[in-house]
Amino acid sequence: MKLKVGLVRGDGIGPEIIESTLKVLDKVLKDTDKSIDYQELIAGGVSLDKYGVPLTDDTIVQAKQCDAILLGAVGGPKWDNLEGHLRPERALLGLRKELNLFANIRPVKLFEALRHRCLLKEAGNIDIVIVRELTGGIYFGKRGREMTENGQVAFDTETYSEMEIERIGRVAFDYAMLRRKKLTSIDKANVLESSRLWRETMHKLAKEYGEVEYSDMLVDNAAMQLIRNPMQFDVIVASNMFGDILSDEASQLTGSIGLLPSSSLGQGKMGLYEPIHGSAPDIAGKNMANPVATILSAAMMLEYSFGMQEEADEIVKAVEKALSTGMLTKDLGGDLSSDQMTKAILDNIA
User: Are 123 and 152 members of one domain?
Assistant: First the structure.
């Protein structure tokens, strides 16, 4: 059986970590009846250089014909001075919007072998799933600039509909039901009207999920609690911007942002899978990048888009075994190159 996967290698370390991930996928699928047909998709800075835009209509058409998308990273200082709509990151926003991928799932798990790398002196069992709304909020609201007597005024508008909040809320409640049945909803309802609608809608949903222990938390308190006592959290649901910031903060509890995968999902099986880190242009081409987050993102792809739980588990176990035997890249305090880390993972796949 052929699985069609769109590959966005992207910028910076993107091509390197994608290449490592393809080796892992090839090995874990070797003795199965499934294989992957890869469709190269150009997006981000490389698309800007070639076509003058971060995401072309052709790339969108090709992406919609795939069963899933695997993405490395986009962006870099080379394109920092471009206008907002031309920034490489707009490719990500565009793909999510065009593919209607409204739910971003970001697991935050502290591996036992990396407990010493956690920022907390006494870290317990940190195992959190952050569910971030992905196609609404301030990142997609009306924006612009106006000239006034005080000079330029810039604005970005936070907008959410009840439908958008309800559908991401259901994703979060369903995840909580599969885990420890505890959900924390993040907002700023003491200040923002959009957050007040968010909270009202979540409260309505909570009545349908009586088994789930539900609570509200203001975003500033949540930022503090993630450092003070992350073990209190099971599933967290948040708006686009709040989820973006909190998940990056939470990544540091695991020892490195280079460890965290993510999936962007919609109503069906189509998903976009990527590490939560950026393109790290300062180490691009130096064989230093940690490929683990991208490899774990591929495991999520096998699980969610293709229903291949056994193969997904095999990848996760291989990563855990490699880490537990001291196989660490520089961001984890070790000295392994990207290639050496990839080999360590491959060696632990049966």
Answer: yes
Whether 188 is catalytic is yes
Does residue 245 surpass a pLDDT of 80? yes
Whether 127 is catalytic = no
Q: What mean pLDDT comes out for the span 269-283? A: 94
Q: Which entry of 220, 269, 282, 347 is annotated as an active-site residue?
A: 220
Q: Which of 244, 273, 304, 331 is catalytic?
A: 244
| H-assigned helices in the chain | 14-28, 45-51, 57-64, 89-98, 162-178, 193-206, 219-228, 240-251, 292-304, 309-324, 338-347
Q: Count of domains in the chain?
A: 2
Choosing from 188, 214, 304, 330, which is the catalytic residue? 188
Tokens representing residue 81 in the block: 């001075």
The answer to whether 220 is a known catalytic residue is yes
Based on the fold, state whether residues 149 and 198 are members of the same structural domain: yes
Same domain, 52 and 127: no
Query: What's residue 71's pLDDT?
Result: 97
Final residue belonging to a domain, choices 254, 284, 316: 254
- Does the annotation count 11 as an active-site position? no
Q: What is the CATH number of the domain that holds 238?
A: 3.40.718.10
Q: Choosing from 248, 317, 339, 343, which is the catalytic residue?
A: 248
Averaging pLDDT over each range in 110-114, 179-183, 328-332, which range is the top one? 179-183
Catalytic residue among 67, 139, 214, 331: 139
When pLDDT is cut at 50, 70 and 90, the band that residue 117 belongs to is confident
The pLDDT, as a whole number, for residue 122 is 78
pLDDT at position 4: 96
Which residue did the predictor score with more confidence, 86 or 290?
290
Does the annotation count 156 as an active-site position? no
Residues 206 and 282 in one domain: no
108 and 142 assigned to the same domain: no
Q: Where a domain ends, among 254, 278, 295?
A: 254
Instruction: Give the count of beta carbons closer than 10 Å to the beta carbon of residue 117.
Output: 19
Per-position DSSP letters for 120-133, written without gaps between them: SSS----EEEEEEE
pLDDT on residue 212: 98
Taking every pair of Cα atoms in the chain, the longest distance, rounded to a whole number of angstroms, is 69
Token output for 17? 């970590």
Domain that holds residue 309: 1-118+255-350
